[in-house]
């Protein structure tokens, strides 16, 4: 909040929060089944559910509710990792949420919009799968229901499949849960529009090149030290080979590291084997968030296991924590878009106009269409029918 105070002091309705949620659910006139609408070709039930209930409250408070819920989900997501048991060192447990929040969730929009929760919620979903099974049957049933809801809240939930296959291969104890969740993912995938998936990209050399360049320069190097080059590729290979050599007698580390690397590459596969990349032909920050988030978990987990090799290394976690703070500062300095977005100073006046207009008697063949500005993503509400357009300047 200190880093991005203007956006918290003046809640806005950014990107698709306008058209897909606020505009669509405004007026509390939609049936409950409207949470199944899929404007992008895939279902996003939890976000729609939140927007459905937020539409029932005072219109002037709705942007604040969007912001508050998005922030809560982001905080929950970065706090789940320290609770998984993957990290043991107290210094890393303390610093992990800061790293995963301020650099892992790679843009302010993940904290302030419902739209970008399709990525945050999938990260939360996968992080929860690292938890040990809960103690009671009822608790596990509730967990399964929650995980199923998260699966139906974004297309990247397809990552459950490679995660489940790896986890079942390496470990025991969650086979039934992961098999059931895989079935849920398959059902969700069958509901996605066919033209969203482009498996033919798997055989295109140009896609392979962009994939490798993205993995190395934008994930492994976190978009630092310039564009992709042979030096970065060699350093990445040497680092990964060195890690395997150091932990060759630590099967637990090797298994978890393999799962994390599979998740990183699978998230990129979900981009390059879909219509999204072919439409934009550029790597937007939202396409990288899952890969970058789990890469940072990989680095934290690696550091934690290194510090546990000998008892005397334990307090080296303090040095790692300081280095993490320096990285966060450097990362946010190089990428200012992570901490700010243009505010919407006219929105409170617009919402007050909507609130006042709602009190008018518009029953007798009168109606008003209010909109703020003329951009593609703008708040638009219709009060009464038929509408007479009135633009808020």
Helix-and-strand structural type: mainly alpha
Mean pLDDT score: 89
Count of runs of 4 or more consecutive helical residues: 17
Please give the alpha-carbon distance between the first and last residues: 29 Å
In total, the number of strands is 3
* Biggest sheet descriptor: 3 strands, mixed
As a percent range, the share of strand residues is under 5%
The residue fraction in helices comes out at 55-70%
Strand arrangement across the biggest beta sheet = 2-1-3
What's the alpha carbon Rg, rounded to whole Å? 23 Å
Shape type: globular
Indicate the multimeric state: single chain
Task: Give the topology string: H per helix, E per strand.
Answer: HHHHHHHHHHHHHHHHHEEE
Poorly predicted sequence stretches spanning 5 or more consecutive residues: none
In short:
The protein is mostly helical and 393 residues long. It has 17 helices and three strands.
Description:
Helix 5 runs parallel beside helix 16. With 393 residues, the protein is mainly alpha-helical. The protein has 17 helices and three strands.
């Amino acid at each position: 909040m200190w880093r991005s105070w203007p956006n918290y002091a003046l809640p806005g309705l950014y990107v698709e929060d306008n058209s897909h949620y606020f505009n669509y659910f405004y007026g509390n006139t939609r049936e409950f089944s409207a949470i199944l609408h899929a404007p992008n070709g895939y279902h996003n039930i939890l976000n729609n559910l939140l927007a459905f209930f937020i539409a029932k409250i005072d219109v002037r408070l709705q942007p604040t509710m969007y912001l508050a819920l998005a922030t809560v989900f982001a905080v929950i997501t970065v706090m789940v990792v320290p609770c998984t048991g993957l990290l043991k060192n107290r210094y890393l447990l303390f610093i992990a949420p800061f790293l995963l929040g301020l650099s892992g969730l790679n843009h302010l929009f993940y904290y302030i919009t419902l739209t970008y929760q399709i990525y945050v919620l999938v990260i939360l979903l996968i992080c929860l799968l690292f938890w040990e099974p809960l103690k009671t049957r009822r608790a596990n049933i509730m967990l399964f229901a929650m995980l199923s809801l998260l699966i139906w809240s974004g297309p990247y939930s397809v990552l459950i499949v490679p995660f489940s296959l790896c986890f079942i291969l390496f470990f025991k104890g969650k086979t039934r849960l992961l098999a059931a969740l895989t079935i849920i993912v398959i059902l969700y995938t069958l509901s996605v529009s066919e033209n969203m998936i482009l498996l033919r990209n798997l055989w295109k050399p140009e896609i392979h090149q962009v994939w490798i360049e993205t993995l190395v320069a934008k994930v492994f190097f976190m978009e630092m030290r310039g564009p992709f080059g042979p030096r970065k590729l060699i350093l990445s290979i040497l680092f990964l080979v060195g890690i395997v050599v150091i932990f060759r007698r630590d099967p637990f580390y090797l298994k978890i590291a393999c799962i994390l690397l599979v998740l990183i590459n699978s998230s990129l596969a979900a981009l390059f084997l879909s219509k999204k990349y072919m439409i934009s032909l550029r790597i937007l920050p939202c396409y990288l968030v899952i890969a970058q988030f789990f890469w940072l978990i990989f680095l934290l987990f690696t550091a934690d296991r290194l510090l546990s090799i000998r008892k005397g290394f334990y307090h080296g976690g303090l040095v790692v924590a300081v280095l993490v703070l320096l990285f966060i500062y450097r990362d946010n300095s190089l990428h200012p878009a992570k901490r700010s977005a243009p505010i919407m100073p006219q929105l409170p006046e617009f919402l007050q106009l909507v609130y006042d207009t709602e009190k008018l008697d518009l029953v007798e063949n009168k109606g008003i269409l209010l909109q703020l500005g003329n951009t593609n993503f703008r708040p638009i509400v219709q009060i009464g029918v038929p509408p007479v357009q009135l633009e808020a300047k």
